Amino acid sequence: MFLHIYFKSHKMLCMCILISVHFRYVVFHPFLDEILMGKIKGCSPEGVHVSLGFFDDIIIPPESLQQPAKFDEAEQVWVWEYETEEGAHDLYMDIGEDIRFRVVDETFIDTSPTGPSTADASSSTDTVETQRKEAPYTLVGSISEPGLGLLSWWTNN
């Protein structure tokens, strides 16, 4: 959020224009093992993708889901096969559902632009497309503990 922008023109040898900008910014950096709540943005064979509304690069990989879990190809959702005395119940992780998860890892990738390379133009285009697909900061979550997962799974009785 910009608070103030000041323009000043100085008549010097270089004819410089100085701009003073005052602003505020928010840094998002959760602690490892911190419990967060978000919404399921989507599911894929790679895991459950979660959004916090202001940050979308969160993934919960299959090995970090409540077990046993399976990916339903037809519905494109993950399913927890919950066992009870009455038998197995399939609990679906649908898009838009509220989810509670633990932060277990984070990845920082330097996405700064690089200078021109000596490679041909087609391979440099592929490199640029690859850089655009990578998120500079990614969180890895887990719901493999009691109390974690969809909020609807853990209702108070």
UniProtKB/TrEMBL annotation:
Compartments (UniProt record): Nucleus
Residue span(s) of domain RNA polymerase III subunit Rpc25: 34-154
Sequence ranges of Low complexity compositional bias: 111-127
Function: DNA-dependent RNA polymerase which catalyzes the transcription of DNA into RNA using the four ribonucleoside triphosphates as substrates.
GO biological process per UniProt: transcription initiation at RNA polymerase III promoter
Residue span of region Disordered: 111-130
Similarity remark: Belongs to the eukaryotic RPB7/RPC8 RNA polymerase subunit family.
UniProt-recorded name of the protein: DNA-directed RNA polymerase subunit
Entry's Gene Ontology cellular component terms: RNA polymerase III complex
Keywords: DNA-directed RNA polymerase, Nucleus, Transcription
InterPro entries, per database record: NA-bd_OB-fold, RNA_pol_III_Rbc25, Rpb7-like
